[in-house]
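Hey, quick one: can you model this chain's 3D structure?
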Amino acid sequence: FDYYESVALTTFHDDEQPVTLSGLMASSVDNLSVKQLRELITSAGLSYVDCVEKPELRARAVEASALLAAKDGAPASAPEGKASSGAAAREDGEAQSEKTMTLSGYDCVVKGPAHCLDGTVQPDLVIIILHGFGATNGDFSSLPSSSGRLVAAKKVVWVFPQAPLGDLGMSAWWKIDPMKWMSAAKAGGDGLAKLIREEPPGLAECRSRMLKLIDEVEAMAGGVPTSRLVLGGFSQGAITAMDLALQLPKDRRVAGVTVLSGAPVVIDQWAPRLKEHSGLKVFVTHGSADMVLPFAASGWLKQLLEAGGASVQYEVHQGGHGLAPDTIPKLVAFWSSL
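Sure thing. Here's the predicted structure for all 338 residues.
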């Protein structure tokens, strides 16, 4: 859904004179143009492709400013594909590493303690994050930097797979028609109720690849059990993560699921499988002003999950189709509790 960003931002003008990075950080984000907001966001290594509205750009820019301030005077991280040195170590001296690898046919960015990535030591937690439709695996790869409390307390391996290109020439986990979702939202409850019962084309094939991805991630991380895995994602990635968790056998329950601006699908399949995963821990967050995936869908997801015996933490923010900065500490606390 992220390609709507270009449409949503066409009413704003980008003809302001460029300013320095220090000037951007010193300025209030409310006073920055769209172009300046984007420059600030990318300078912190973040992405703005999931920011549909200008207020979401401002929120991401606030996160970027915080990251840049935290990095001020700190050594730069290692280039992608290479293990970082002791300069990128945790406070306890544990060296962090980053590498690219292919898992189940997906190009993945993998981050975490060096001895966990080489399989020497099992991590305490493995967090797999699936990006949204039309986006890249770089969108949320800054989450480890925003999760200091979690990383300081646990050995965490992060896996960011890249979805293949779909029929529209945009990355997609399975075939999706964004206009169909927007039309269903305009049609009201009946339209959405019908849509969330349909099985999207390609979902079955995606499930097979994702189940293989889990097997290969566990093997890569020294044989870590499924009970230490967290499946998460944004938008289409969130739907895929939730579906994947429910496809696993009941004796292979994941530690938790993170649903960021997602929605339910194939609910007639999900409902009975939830009974087999009773007690599953799920973090759900959604913006009340979401114009892409309707906010009501997250409420239905919460009801479905709770009816199936899941333990749900439901966080609402006032933004649109994006992850609100003030939700990140709650998300990190959820992961820390697993």
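One thing worth noting: Residues 1-27, 72-93 have pLDDT under 50 and may be disordered.
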